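Lecture notes, part 5. Sequence design as translation. It can be helpful to think of inverse folding as translation between two languages: the language of shapes and the language of residues. The source text, in structure tokens, appears below.
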């Protein structure tokens, strides 16, 4: 038996300890990797993302080609004319694409809704004004967006002039949920507040007039993600959820006051959330929290 000197023994112990440490680290990493892969595979099995469908729809009255993305309900939902599935129309924030909110689109899709994500801003459109008062300078943008939402609703809801309509008889276009982030939330609130311009040729920057606009009756819910400019609808017929970030305030009158009777409106603020992060590019914890709030409000899920 070979005897080690003190120096040799100490060296052996150091090497042996280092080896055991490296082996343990390797095993630990393997376990973590294995657990992560298993969890990910399980999530994909339980909630497989459904394919979306990209369309471009021509609004001939305004000579406007509107890109939309359709997210059909998961296959387990049986949508029929007698039991139609819900419809969600989603509007993005200014400067973002309608496809930059997959986490919300997939959530509603997997809860049995048809999601229609609408692109509002086209290259030919004027830029969104940065000059106050926004209710004057941005009204053209919001009214144009509201008219677009109304056209999309008409296009898919059974208007006999549109060939696509008969394919969507299994969906409830009489009780729409509007979802919008930032300027998309302003557009959604504008549609509920001011309706659409009946004569589209007269659409201009003069602002909305409730006496000449056509009010819509099909908006049942509105969900806004930190919109800041247009007042939320106070009508008791519309259920409203406004999810707020923490870095910018809303303009006066946008949210109900403390003493205001607005039982139809729920306002939830997410601490440390940033306005510009409330989309697919934001952190996972924020996207998960947004979905959790929506699920709790409308699906009684904790």
């Amino acid at each position: 038996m070979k005897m080690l000197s003190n120096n040799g023994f100490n060296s052996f112990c150091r090497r042996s300890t280092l080896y055991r440490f490296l082996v343990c680290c390797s095993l630990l990493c393997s376990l973590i990797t294995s657990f992560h892969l298993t969890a990910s595979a399980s999530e994909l099995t339980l909630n497989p993302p459904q394919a979306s469908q990209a369309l471009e729809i021509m609004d001939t009255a305004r000579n406007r080609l509107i890109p939309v993305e359709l997210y059909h309900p998961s296959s387990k939902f049986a949508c029929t004319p007698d039991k139609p599935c819900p419809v969600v129309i989603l509007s993005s924030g200014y400067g973002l694409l309608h496809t930059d909110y997959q986490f919300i689109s997939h959530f509603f899709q997997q809860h049995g809704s048809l999601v229609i994500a609408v692109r509002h801003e086209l290259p030919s459109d004027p830029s969104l004004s940065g000059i106050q008062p926004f209710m004057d300078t941005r009204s053209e943008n919001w009214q144009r967006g509201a008219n677009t939402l109304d056209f999309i609703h008409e296009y898919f809801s059974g208007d006999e002039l549109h060939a696509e309509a008969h394919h969507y008889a299994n969906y409830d276009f009489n009780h729409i949920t509007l979802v919008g982030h930032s300027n998309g939330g302003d557009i959604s609130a504008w549609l509920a507040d001011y309706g659409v311009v009946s004569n589209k040729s007269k659409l201009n920057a003069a602002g909305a007039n409730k006496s000449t606009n056509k009010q819509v009756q099909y908006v049942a819910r509105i969900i806004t993600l930190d919109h800041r400019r247009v007042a939320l609808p106070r009508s008791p017929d519309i259920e409203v959820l406004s999810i707020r970030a923490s870095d910018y305030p809303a303009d006066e009158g946008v949210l109900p006051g403390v003493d205001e009777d607005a039982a139809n409106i729920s306002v939830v603020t997410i601490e440390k959330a940033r306005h510009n992060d409330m989309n697919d590019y934001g952190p996972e914890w924020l996207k998960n929290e947004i979905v959790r709030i929506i699920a709790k409000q409308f699906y009684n899920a904790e």
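The translated text above is only one of many valid answers, since several sequences can fold into similar shapes. The chain has six helices and ten strands.
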